[in-house]
Design a protein that fits this description.
Length: about 300
């Protein structure tokens, strides 16, 4: 997959079938649009493409709460590539693009830059200045300028329309089962293992600690059944998200105890996938009480992993 990170880089592009969208979660609905773009391009002898923005457009607007990411940028690219896309246009959303009229976006970018022959998007896709462009405008312009349009209907799972906002909501609620169902994969946090307070090691539950990325949506404080991937191998694990109130005042972080694992991971990269929430975080009266609760949680998590082998 060729990746273009600016409009200036885009030159001499072969005819394309372009999937349009933020694709900020690459959930099942997004995947359906991207897969159809690949299939249509293959059938017509064109290149398949995704046009998206590297930053969420709403984050350029004033007086609006920032939209947190569901996926790390490298994971977004990896998943899109795995779906068979030839070109990924990962363009910064700037003031100039924000103020571009919808018709100019079609003429200058989609047709002029991307050499688009067919466009695919969701039913609620908007673009152009003040989001005036929509699927109706795409259909009108396609008749004048001879390009195909496919508008995807709402993608539903168990009667629920799947959307990135719904997935953010489920992550924020700690509903990892629903989140996995809508994403088509487990929600995950990844990063470099940092040094913690080492209390877990002292009480028999050594943990690998990750700092919370404030730009990412994160689960609520609590204990989760997880699996941890290190060096390409997935291990059963249990994870606490929170402030460790029993032992002091700490910034929110993610600490994972990997079962039957004795390697030192400080400075190493790991990925923690969230499977199911066990309980909320709470403050215990003593470290001894905390240790007993951790033991009970580990027994529950191990039973889960035996039933749902990693």
């Amino acid at each position: 997959m060729l990746v273009f990170n600016s409009l200036e880089e885009i030159k001499d592009i072969k005819p394309t079938v372009v999937a349009l969208g933020n694709f900020d979660g690459i959930h099942l609905g997004h995947q359906a649009i991207i897969k159809k773009a690949v299939n249509d391009a293959t059938g017509e002898g064109y290149k398949s493409a995704v046009f998206t923005f590297e930053n969420h457009p709403r984050n350029l607007l004033k007086n609006t709460a920032p939209v947190k990411n569901i996926l790390y940028p490298e994971d977004k690219m990896r998943i899109i590539e795995s779906l068979g896309i030839d070109y990924m246009f990962n363009i910064p959303f700037t003031e100039d693009i924000m103020k571009m009229e919808a018709e100019d976006f079609i003429d200058e970018i989609l047709l002029g830059k991307l050499n688009m022959k067919e466009v695919l998007c969701g039913f609620n896709y908007h673009f152009g200045y003040k989001a005036r462009g929509n699927v109706n405008l795409l259909l009108e312009e396609s008749m004048k300028k001879d390009f195909g349009v496919h508008v995807a209907e709402p993608f539903k799972v168990d009667g629920q329309v799947v959307s990135s906002s719904l997935i953010r909501e489920k992550i924020s609620e700690g509903d990892m089962v629903a989140c996995s169902k809508y994403l088509g994969r487990n929600y995950a946090i990844a990063g470099e293992v940092v040094v913690g307070n080492r209390l877990g090691r002292k009480i028999g539950f050594p943990t690998s600690n990750l700092n919370i990325d404030e730009g990412m949506v994160s689960p609520p404080n609590g204990v989760y059944i997880t699996k941890c991937t290190y060096n390409g191998v997935a291990y059963p694990s249990i994870t606490n998200v929170g402030h460790k109130p029993t032992i002091g005042v700490y910034a929110k972080n993610v600490e994972t105890h990997i079962f039957n694992f004795d390697k030192e991971l400080y400075g190493k990269m790991i990925k923690v996938e969230f499977l199911e929430k066990l309980r909320d975080e709470k403050k215990f009266d003593s470290v001894e009480e905390l240790s007993k609760e951790i033991t009970a949680n580990c027994i529950t998590a191990k039973a889960y992993h035996r039933q749902h082998s990693v």
